[in-house]
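Reader question, answered in our methods column.
A reader sent in the components of a multi-part assembly and asked whether the whole thing could be modeled at once rather than chain by chain. We filled in our standard form and ran it. Here is what they sent:
COMPLEX SIZE: two components
ENTRIES:
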Amino acid sequence: SQQGEEDPQALSIQEGENATMNCSYKTSINNLQWYRQNSGRGLVHLILIRSNEREKHSGRLRVTLDTSKKSSSLLITASRAADTASYFCATDVIQGAQKLVFGQGTRLTINP
Amino acid sequence: DTAVSQTPKYLVTQMGNDKSIKCEQNLGHDTMYWYKQDSKKFLKIMFSYNNKELIINETVPNRFSPKSPDKAHLNLHINSLELGDSAVYFCASSRIGQTNTEAFFGQGTRLTVV
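And here is the structure of the entire assembly that came back:
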């Protein structure tokens, strides 16, 4: 079974609103990362949060991590049309080698 | 300058054929990966090479054979292509020597087997 599962699978909001996506995972991790994928393109790294961190900010992005619940959330504030993309969480599992395990992603649509 | 580049971007081929996808990174990373993204957008690691040595080999049919001639290249050869191999294949790289490091992805190769 897959490690990361994003929720919701799809999210549609108005421009200017905040978007929140959640991710749950199953095993111990080194860190958790969020990536964005625009349609037909590769994945772009957004932010990384270490297993000993609880919250991290980068511009309009805010990530939280709750290792006791094995969950993370990504908040995008003041959304823009250009934020329309799929967002994936990836857990870097502790296995002696870096191995990113991805969920299925959340498809975010920002309506103008 | 493209950090991780894959060729070709699109590949349409018939069942039973053998094909290769090439990947190169100019980031000086020591680890490279192949990921497969299926039609439901689920992204799964296939292989990982560190300094030309295979370190991760997921449950992938042995028709798939990665080859790493040097640290900057990781090619994927697929024999006897099947319809179920149709997917988008992504190459990625990272610096495994550092903990907590991000991966850089290529733009993907959309493989369609007909």
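What stands out: Chain A touches chain B through 26 residues (CB under 8 Å). The two ends of chain A are 37 Å apart (CA to CA).
Send us your own complexes using the same form.
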